[in-house]
Amino acid sequence: MKAIVTGHSRGLGAALAAALLDRGAAVLGLARAGNPALAGRLDQVAVDLANPDAVAALAVPGGPLDRFLAGSGAGPVLLLNNAGMVEPIGPAGTLDPAVVARAVALNVTAPLLLADAVIAATEGQADRRVLHVSSGAGRSAYPGWSVYGATKAALDHHARAVAADARPGLRIASVAPGVVDTDMQAALRATPEDRFVLRARFVSLKADNALTSPEDCAARMIDHLLSDAFGRDPVADIRDLT
Ligand code: NAP
User: Is the pTM of this model over 0.90?
Assistant: First the structure.
């Protein structure tokens, strides 16, 4: 089993990478920073996934993806598109254009480019699976999250349309992970109320111990990813599945 995990340096991605290693997968981690706790157990490439040229360079012949996937054999090949950013947060009409463009590049362009590259590189494989890490924000509209919600809705629809392509051996799903105790949650709690009216809700969730740990969430996400049910519904929420 081989798994490519984006955003493996911290948060949910670090827990996903660790869980896959514990289950015997070879793992390639892609993020700007490395993951010192997992060093020596996985391959890591430092890359800014908000730069589409850098993402495309991962997939050139003889490049990092090629080298990692060479000799995959009959085992499953997994792509976990986990890296993401929640910024820009704030009402429409007040957003920094550079941050809007960066969010779309990281949250949408990179996962779509990587999915296509991995699907192309695994043609003929009997078992290949793509997991987009989505969000409830892509399914319900929340104030302050127009860009984040739109990027996650894009992943959901990409999964539906790729599933409709019915490529041999390929399963894909866009799965919301619930509310996970990571730096991203800390950033939400640190956002001023006038930019994010939902701030108090996230402060309460943390105070009430209502956040899932990255490890628990990752275990459930990997159970689902490796199950027969994966891809049956291309848009799912882990809280409804386990
Ligand atoms: P996080 O703690 O902020 O971690 C984000 C990860 O993405 C890091 O490993 C980071 O690595 C990587 N990343 C960010 N910008 C990058 C860039 N430009 N290039 C490459 N990698 C980049 O976030 P998280 O909470 O673990 O979130 C993981 C996923 O779950 C995201 O897609 C998020 O939208 C989704 N999600 C999270 C929650 C939640 O409650 N936490 C809820 C719903 C959905 P580097 O900084 O090293 O690059």
Answer: yes
The CATH number given to whatever domain includes residue 148 is 3.40.50.720
Q: What are the pLDDT digits (tens) for 65-101?
A: 999 999 655 699 999 999 999 999 999 999 999 999 9
CA 96 to each of CA 11, 89, 91, 190: distance values in angstroms, whole numbers, following the listed order: 25, 10, 11, 18
- 188 inside domain: no
> Which residues sit opposite 180 in a β-bridge?
212
Q: Does the active-site annotation cover 142? A: no
In a domain, 184, yes or no: no
Number of domains into which the chain is organized = 1
- Give the CA angle between residues 102, 108, 114 to the nearest 5°: 110
Which residues, judged by CB distance below 6 Å to any ligand atom, belong to the binding site of ligand 1? 7, 9-13, 31-33, 48-50, 82-85, 106, 133, 135, 177, 179-180, 182-185
